[in-house]
Amino acid sequence: MAPTGTDVSADAINFATIWEGVAAAVPDKPAAAHGTESHAWATFEGRSARLAGALHAAGVGADDKVALFLFNGFEYEEAQFAAFKQRAVPCNVNYRYLADELAYLLENADAKVLFFDETLSGRVAEVRERCPLVSLYVQVGGGELMDGAVHYEDLIADHEPADPIARSGGDLWFLYTGGTTGNPKAVMWPHDQMIANMQAHYSVLGRGIPETAAEAVEGAVELNSRNRTTKLLAAAPLMHGTSGINALHTLTQGGLVATLAGRSFDADELWSTVALHRLTMLTIVGDAFARPMLEALDRAEAARRPHDLSSVFQIMSSGVMWSQESKQAFLEHKPMTLMDSLGSSESVGQAMQLTRKNESVASTGRFMLGPTTQVITDDGRMVEPGSGEIGRLANKGANPLGYYKDPEKTEETFPTIDGVRWSIPGDYATVEEDGTITLLGRGSVCINSGGEKIYPEEVEEAVKTHPAVLDCNVVGLPDDRWGQSVNAVVAIDDAVEVGDEEIIAHARTQIAAYKAPKRILRTAAFVRSPNGKSDYQWAKAEAEKLAEI
């Protein structure tokens, strides 16, 4: 595929141009579902086109930023499609953000439009005076309208559909990532580079990455004719990469993206939605989703009202480690493919682990490198398999431009080594003799104890293999002797009596003793980010409170 460019064409590799072509070719096929409702491609395209007409009337065009302060639902995907149609840049906004965080992101993004849910209007009202660049506020939901805002459905009703325009493969999609430290940063993904990450999708057809929008539409039509399109359940929030990226890929191949109506995770609702829409692929975030899903399956079977999993072909997890034990449990319920994908906002598909029925389940955190990924030491050398050296995952494949308005961080994360541009977000790993990697974790939360580097994710997985531990985050706290000590903030099953020393001793059977927690800190209300990822800022504050530091 040609490198990212800014050439404008009526047939560019662009999400909006491809999706318009898919809607014209298969108008009656399902494109979106939310709860029990579903929309065909013609409806998805028609509503988005009217929203694009409203954006055009508001002066929104190429490179203008459109912020989405929304929960999962039809509106998220439609507003994003409408922005793409105008060559504008959709920006995800975490719906948990309070006023200061929201104001920072809107200012950082230079946002011109803000779509927001009615339940978030109080926070939006707080920041209006601090965000003078925002000229259009669009409220989703039928509640009392915030002063100065317009209702989402009114925009659709009051505007004619925007005409299709020529676009570029270099048009952008922003994925704001909070990381583990510092303010959120927008990863700038060109459309053509994000679509270039879809090689696995097109290999089903025996095709390479499409060169034009027409070729992409042709592939989507062929998949539909074969009944091979993905019907995706985006179980995590669309505002995060796990669901957001997979939703982009699913729509580009002419498939269906479904979301849950509930705003807190309900595993029974998930399985009911799967059965209702005959969904084929589920995206989850590790054991934070897997454990309640398995518990719901077990409850339903015990009550002799089992959930219908017959349509499910694949469950994919990304973002956090997915334990060997829960993978095995899924396979006992139904033969399927389990894909444990290792990637980040800055680098898609760095490595993966595929698990199927009647195959040995690989150990937690062990992955096969992707074709464009290697492990590189901090001084720029390739890690030799079996050497025991620690390096960072580095991807030279389809990659983003960098971080918006942050050239220094861009240069650090996307360095050029021996003439090759890499994406190196900061995930550390070792390379085994067979070429597989063992993921250690993100360097930004690495603990330095007595000169030894300890990666929290590795310790967390060891602690969580104890049957009494429901969840765990590991953080470093100041220590007079070691500099930092390893501390596990854990949620414990109330039905099990277990001492701290037993948990620590169990961890030592899984990992080296120096990595094991020195202290177990029990919390009654474990907190994760909305997509199930670890919230290390919360964990650090909770650990300091519980340890009385």
Q: State the major sheet.
A: 13 strands, mixed
CATH class of the domain at 40-192: Alpha Beta
Distance between the termini: 54 Å
Strand order, main sheet: write it out.
3-2-13-12-14-15-16-17-18-25-24-20-19
Approximate shape? globular
Provide the gyration radius in Å.
Answer: 23 Å
Count of strand segments? 30
Tell me the structural class: alpha/beta
Per the CATH scheme, the topology name of the domain at 40-192 is Rossmann fold
**DSSP strand content:** 25-35%
Q: How much helix is in the residues?
A: 25-40%
Mean pLDDT: 92
- CATH architecture annotation of the domain at 40-192: 3-Layer(aba) Sandwich
Helix-strand layout with pairing:
Elements lengths: L7 E2 L5 H11 L4 E5 L2 E4 H17 L7 E5 L4 H12 L3 E4 L6 H11 L1 E7 L3 H7 L8 E5 L8 E3 H7 L8 E2 L3 E6 L7 E6 H6 L2 H5 L9 H13 L5 E4 L6 H12 L3 E4 L7 H11 L3 E4 L1 H17 L11 E5 L5 H10 L3 E8 L2 E9 L10 E4 L3 E4 L13 E6 L6 E2 L3 H7 L2 E2 L2 E2 L5 E5 L5 E6 L4 E3 L2 E3 L1 H9 L4 E11 L3 E10 L7 H9 L10 E4 L13 H11 L3
Parallel strand pairs: 2-13, 4-5, 4-6, 6-7, 7-8, 12-13, 12-14, 14-15, 15-16, 29-30
Antiparallel strand pairs: 1-9, 2-3, 10-11, 11-21, 16-17, 17-18, 18-25, 19-20, 20-24, 22-23, 24-25, 26-27, 28-29
